[in-house]
Hints:
The protein is α+β, with helices and mostly antiparallel strands. It has a single domain (21-318), classed as (Glycosyl)asparaginase (Glutamine Phosphoribosylpyrophosphate, subunit 1, domain 1), CATH 3.60.20. It contains 9 helices and 13 strands. The protein has helices spanning 3-15, 44-54, 60-73, 117-127, 135-144, 155-167, 235-241, 243-252, 257-269; strands at 36-40, 94-99, 105-111, 132-134, 182-187, 193-199, 220-223, 227-233, 281-287, 292-296, 302-307, 310-315, 317-318. An 8-stranded mixed beta sheet has the order 4-3-2-6-5-1-11-12. A hairpin with a 5-residue loop joins strand 5 (182-187) and strand 6 (193-199). Helix 8 (243-252) packs across helix 9. The chain is globular, with a radius of gyration of 20 Å. The N and C termini lie far apart (40 Å). The structure holds glycine.
Amino acid sequence: MDRRSFIKRTGVASLGIGLNYHKTFSVTKNNISNPLVIATWNVKNATEKAWQILSKKGNSLDAIEQGCMVEESNEQGQSVGIGGLPDRDGNVTLDACIMNHKGDCGSVVYLKNIKHAISIARLVMEKTPHVILAGDGAKKFALSMGFKEENLLTEKSKTDWINWKKKEKYKPIINIENHDTIGMLAIDKNNNISGGCTTSGLAYKMQGRVGDSPIIGSGLYIDNEIGGAVATGLGEEVLKTVGSFLIVELMRQGYSPTEACKIAIQRIVNKPGSNYKNFQVGYIAVNKNGDTGSYAIQKGFSMTKYDKNGNKNISSLFFEKI
Ligand code: GLY
């Protein structure tokens, strides 16, 4: 590009013609006195727990950890914590991450036999100079922090795995209609945003496979000046598009949380050769004004929101062209 055409192009850009550079995020509610928490899927017990902390002027990081722990302890849920479906070799391995309003973060990948992966992620953030601990090292660290090992493979998940092994069809489709990674975002009384996500990952995954959930920027991102976003669904697709960071950057440009989530979903479905009809990805987001939104590829995704109006499960918008 020569100098003349560069000046022409940047001149157009500076006027905002045809581009979205004219949009920027502005804080219109400097002091939202009403905290809130949102989470992926229908997890009212988890948002209830987070709300108990937020409504008593607790901080958003505690709310996130405690809220996620509810689902990690729920043996019925087969995609998070205890009861999670194993990899194809029968190992339940957990991934989680957490991020606070200062931009600090911690995560664990391939954690075995410790159900509260979110708490270990928080301790990585707070007690080590690192961001990610993996596998045996993550477990050793958890044990050193006083956590106890337990068997995370429940009888139900073991039976499902044994039945799966009879055919061993490796078809990595994440739940389309009920439950998957739990992602949570909260704003507290001081208007500080934190987020977390926790998962046992893709059912019957290859041993060693890690998805988006413990990867800051993909599974979760927080910028306390702008807002936060978190993902659920097929992690490979979220990783390839760095979804949560993208959503926060779109909100910085002035897009609403719903618009930002929608554009991030379009990034996935519009990829050349995308087989998006065969999998689900869903995003939820909140901005600094307390506006919230969600968007998914397929019908069936929902967001749970607890604010001053109560604890509600809200169906998500989804990509229409299916
Ligand atoms: N989103 C969870 C995973 O893909 O592991």
